[in-house]
Design a protein that fits this description.
Blueprint lengths: L1 E8 L8 E9 L2 E7 L10 E4 L3 E5 L1 E6 L8 H4 L6 H17 L2 E6 L5 H8 L7 E4 L36 H14 L4 E5 L19 H13 L3 E6 L2 H10 L3 E4 L8 H9 L2 E3 L2 H10 L2 H24 L19 H7 L5 H7 L2 H6 L17 E5 L15 E6 L2 E5 L3 E2 L1
Parallel strand pairs: 1-4, 1-5, 6-7, 7-8, 9-10, 10-11, 11-12
Antiparallel strand pairs: 1-2, 2-3, 4-16, 5-13, 13-14, 14-15
Length: 412
Amino acid sequence: MKVIKNVNLIDGTGNPPVDNVAVIINENIIEAIGNTEKITIPNSAEVINGTGMSLLPGLIDCHDHLAYFGYDTAGRWGLDERRSTRHMRIASVLNQTLLSGYTTVRDAGGLDAGFRDAVDQKLIPGPRLQVSLSIISPTGGVGEETSISGYTNPSAPDPNLPSGVANGIEGMRNKVREMVHAGADVIKFATTGGASSKAGLGPKDMIIGIDEINAIVTEAHQLGKKVMCHALGGLGLRCAIEAGVDSIEHGAYLDEDPELLSIMVEKEIFFAPTFSVYVFHQQSGTPHGKKRAADMKEHHIRSVQMAIEAGVKVVAGTDAGGWVHGNNAQEIICLTQTGMTPLQAIVSATKNASECLGLDKEIGTIETGKNADLILVQGNPLDDIGILEKGAAVKFVMKNGETYLDQITSIS
């Protein structure tokens, strides 16, 4: 049994912080929460003094790419190093991400289910994982491994990562089944281009048929899987929302079709704007990617502001794995720059995020009966949200009751 006491509690529910709190953890479950002076602390418990610190739920990233290390073709196709070296590199990223305070990550493509299993079996340290394996899209879409010059990936196909390319209604249904068979926790597909897609395939260009969209969503839901959809704007965005996907990834041009926001509320569709990746596209992307990111910036900010006002649940997701790892909290800072309060931004990476992933009964808030996913942060992120970046102020990380980082002296 462990007790964390004398903390400023930010429980992830959106409630105001509470000072001088103690939390009792029994094995992997939060057993009790109360005032440090009033709660009964068992004599046998290991006590951690959190004076001067804030206790938060483990943070959640709803959209990352933990297996990506760049946007160059050779790197994306795995041609620049041995597969075993790449696997070790990914394992290092998983550990780095966990130690920065992120105890759960939904990977939006590139990570095979074996990494999830390795973390669950404690073969390697890392955040709790949900994987989508590969992004589904038709020929010519964003999920196709074809170079600008027209060549396809020459490396041997990875049986753990099925190709995301499919065509037609039956092709889409079969592709969903193939992903689930290969271990996908969530189905990801694309209805539009994006900032990083090839020149001529823009963020509002629809790349898939309406019947194909409906086939993917229906088949995934019949198999008990949520659906995350890469969609930035235009008809592709509208069709994805009308089909009832579970989350919209990016959604930069929602402001141009405000009616969609009420549909999202009605259908309980989450919104992961992923600002972080567009910071990098604007700074370091391709020439057309830089322009796209710059053009969408104000639309993107307005879309989030309008979504919050409409009652859409916004969740934190970086999508920045191709540029940088270990700074997932950058997205929380980006969300505050759209007008969110620090507390709202934290909720987007805790309570709302856990609901988006279907894990809200287990994690996302600090409440009795929930799994003990907890982090201790030096200082108060509500006063300075920037202390969460790169895990700089994170001094203690617990996932499912097990301690992975402890830079605090325990006292008896």
